[in-house]
Amino acid sequence: MAHGVPLLTAVPRRHGAARLAFTGGARVLPANADDLQAWLDPVLSRASQPMHGKTYR
């Protein structure tokens, strides 16, 4: 995450404080398909564009 690489994980709510400490406050997505797709679309769009001469796929 510190290098700008998108990371999607699932963490039980009971571990929310530990997740917050580990990630430094990274964004939390609601557990529904529409919000996940809204996050994923721009990630995939950026992944298909060359970055420093490389394409991430």
Keywords:
mainly alpha, flat
What does this structure look like?
This protein has helices spanning 16-23, 33-47. It is flat, with a radius of gyration of 14 Å. The chain has 2 helices and no strands. Helices cover 40% and strands 0% of the residues. It is mostly helical. It starts with 15 loop residues before the first helix and ends in a 10-residue tail after the last helix. The longest helix has 15 residues, at 33-47. The model has no long low-confidence stretch (mean pLDDT 82).
Based on CA atoms alone, the radius of gyration comes out at: 14 Å
Cα distance, first to last residue? 17 Å
Segments where pLDDT lies below 50 for 5+ residues? none
- Which whole number gives the mean pLDDT? 82
Number of helices: 2
Helix-strand sequence? HH
Helical amount among residues, as a percent range? 40-55%
Beta-strand percentage range: under 5%
Query: Count the strands?
Result: 0
Write the layout of secondary structure elements.
Blueprint: H1 16-23, H2 33-47
Concise overview:
The chain has 57 residues and is mainly alpha-helical. It has helices spanning 16-23, 33-47.
